[in-house]
Amino acid sequence: MSTVSTPMASSAPLINKDRVIDWLGISPFIIFSLLFLIIPTLYLVVGAFLTPEGDFTLKNIGDLFTPSIMSAYWISIRVSVASALGGALIGFFLAWAVVLGGLPASVRSTLLTFSGVASNFAGVPLAFAFLATLGRTGLVTIFLREWFGFNLYGTGFNLLSFFGLTITYMYFQIPLMVLILTPALDGMKKEWREASQILGATNRQYWTMVALPILWPSLLGTTLLLFANAFGAIATAFALTGSSLNIVPILLYAQIRGDVLHNANLGYAIALGMIVITGVSNVLYLLLRMRAERWQK
Fold first, then answer.
1. CA proximity to 230, closest of 140, 119, 113
2. Number of H helices, E strands in the chain
3. Cβ pair 118, 175 in contact under 8 A
4. What is the pTM of this model?
5. I want to staple 107 with a disulfide (CB 3.0 to 4.6 A). Which of 37, 103, 175, 258 is the partner?
6. What is the mean pLDDT of the segment spanning 7-25?
7. Residue 159 burial (CB < 10 Å; 0-12/13-18/19+)?
8. pLDDT-derived band of residue 92, with 50, 70 and 90 as boundaries?
9. CATH for the 67-295 domain, from 3.40.50.300, 1.10.3720.10, 2.80.10.50, 3.30.70.120
10. Bridge partners of 56?
11. Alpha carbons 255 and 234: distance in angstroms, whole number
């Protein structure tokens, strides 16, 4: 007696419904990234190599090396480096105090909550807050003059300057450093300190030979992130100093608006230079973060 074999019907569906739902869930992010990040960036990159008539040119890239534009880049780099280093140094000690310093848990939660708010506090509100505090008629300025006879602006201090802008930027740089570095400090294992103590190492030797070498990729990477964060900031600087401090974002804003020579393509080239600088900083940050994560596994 012979049996007839029939092909087994495939039970696997042609379309994975779970996969479709997953893609639908992430689609708003993809659309948002395309419309407000990827497509505008590509538009700037292409426009940097075009004339206003649409012809290919390298003149816009060459004009980046004119003294006025190079000066704007140099001022922006100095402000970004100064605020990044200051924010990294102060933020590190704040994060160390709440994670490893033995402070109450309530202090840690309060600091992290404040850091989450302050790291996003920028633009016109931040500029107004500093003008109301450290301006020529600010609260602290008047308090120091009336109560202690100390004229802050008599020392040469000026909020509408390189030093003043750096201090203002540090207001959101320090909390950002605290937020990013706290998980790295939490990842420091107690066994490392106990092993160093068993071997006779002092607290100073533990930090210089064990802790800091492990934390160094996180510290350097976060400092690079702070640099990129300050380099692209415009709202705070424009609201605080106007056009008195010629940093790159303000120059770019004026160029695209047509306040100067009305060459939008040169503005695209200026934006391309900013993209390159911040892109390199972010790539280095990601590489250092991956290295730090390998150390702490």
1. 119
2. 14, 0
3. yes
4. 0.84
5. 103
6. 67
7. buried
8. very high
9. 1.10.3720.10
10. 50
11. 14
Torsion of CA 56, 62, 63, 69, to 10 degrees: 130
How many angstroms separate the CA atoms of 142 and 150, rounded?
A: 9
Give the tens place of pLDDT for each residue, 114-152. Answer: 999 998 888 888 888 999 999 888 999 999 999 998 998
Asked whether 245 and 42 are in contact (CB, 8 A), the reply is: no
SS3 280: helix
Mean pLDDT of 150-168: 89
Q: Which two tokens stand for residue 197?
A: 């103590």
pLDDT band at 6 (very low <50, low <70, confident <90, very high): low
- Is the pLDDT assigned to residue 3 strictly greater than 90? no
Q: Determine the Cα–Cα distance for residues 131 and 75; give it in Å rounded to an integer.
A: 21
Q: Bin 2: left if φ > 0, else alpha if -120 < ψ < 50, else beta.
A: beta
* Angle of CA points 131, 134, 140, to nearest 5°: 125
115, two tokens: 């850091």
Q: Can you give the residue ranges of every domain in the chain?
A: 67-295
DSSP tag of 5: -
Report yes or no: 136 and 186 within 8 Å, Cβ to Cβ. Answer: no
Q: What is the pLDDT of residue 261?
A: 55
Contact predicate 231/277, CB 8 Å: yes
Query: How far, CA to CA in Å, does 99 sit from each of 110, 187, 194, 209, 295?
Result: 13, 10, 17, 20, 19
Cα→Cα distances 257→59, 250, 260, 275, 293, Å: 20, 11, 8, 19, 44
